[in-house]
Amino acid sequence: MNYPPLFLPLILLVIGCQALAADDEVLSINGCRIEADSRCPNANLRNADLSNQDMRRMNLAGADLSGANLRHARLDLANLEKANLQGANLTRASLQQSNLRLADFTDSTLIAIQGWGLFAQAAQFQGADLRAANLEFARLSGAKLHKVKLQAANLEMTWLSKADLKGASLIDANLQEVKLSGANLENADLSGTRTHYGNFQGANMQGCKACPQGWD
């Protein structure tokens, strides 16, 4: 269609306004743009509603996400090292290959997360709800998991060496080829778990229910 010359600037102005409007639709909280590849280290996102957001590869190292709603958020390959996620809700969020080293997930909800290959060495998970979480090939060595709920979680080939799982519930979890050498399983419950080829060398099993025998 051919437009008269006088209409062309008006058409270009409308197109430009539409582009600006689309750009403005990106959620921004305290100066942090919530979008893939955004860089927001130490951002204040406390109690923010971030549900369903695309946060892949975001740099959120040291950020305060305590109490945040991250249901269904996509955090694959994100950097959350030393971030505070106490009491956050990450139900069905995707955290595949994300960096959670030294992050604090105390009392957080991570039901059915996709955490394939995530890195969470020395992270804090006390009292967290990880029921039905997929943590296959994840790295959680030295993590603190007191009284964590891991019922029906997938921990196949997960590294939990020297992790502290005191009082944890792993009922019906998949522990095939799990690495639990030197871990603390005091008063943990492994009823109904699949432990084929798991490594429990040197693990503390005092008071553990259904822990595999022969690793003393």
TrEMBL record:
Pfam family membership, one: Pentapeptide
Key words of the record: Signal
First and last residue of the signal peptide: 1-21
InterPro entries, per the entry: 5peptide_repeat (IPR001646), Pentapeptide-BTB/POZ_domain (IPR051082)
Coiled coil: none
Annotated protein name in UniProt: Uncharacterized protein YjbI, contains pentapeptide repeats
Gene source species: Pseudomonas borbori
Upper classification of the organism: Bacteria, Pseudomonadati, Pseudomonadota, Gammaproteobacteria, Pseudomonadales
